[in-house]
Amino acid sequence: xxxxxxxxxxxxxxxxxxxxxxxxxxxxxxxxxxxxxxxxxxxxxxxxxxxxxxxxxxxxxxxxxxxxxxxxxxxxxxxxxxxxxxxxxxxxxxxxxxxxxxxxxxxxxxxxxxxxxxxxxxxxxxxxxxxxxxxxxxxxxxxxxxxxxxxxxxx
Length: 155
Ligand code: CO
Prior knowledge:
The chain is α+β, with helices and mostly antiparallel strands and 155 residues long. It has helices spanning 25-40, 122-135, 146-152; strands spanning 45-47, 57-62, 65-77, 81-86, 96-101, 103-109, 115-121.
């Protein structure tokens, strides 16, 4: 059972995750742990690297509660962007205004192994983009203009 969320600069946060080929009992257990960890830490999104697992799995807080998305991909994004404040459970207390596309289309597998496509907007689109970035080792600080990142004094 996973007990702690990895905090920056733990090296695993920079790892590129592998696709999940089969939803095994182990994967189901990991998903259960991730949902529990996200709720315990009052998060609205969590990626597997944040619990030390290099697997392409994210948890998103939806209107139906926490849901897992496996091998999620952004298949299209809007040209329109917007700036919103983001936090991250791996950077406690840090909130940054980040510019991202305002709408994205997502393809993923759900926990029932069904392929799903979702059109997301605004806040939910934001969470998906932040979490999918984590699966490629990209953190929200990397989305700042470089001069703003310099001001943060973190690498
Ligand atoms: Co994060």
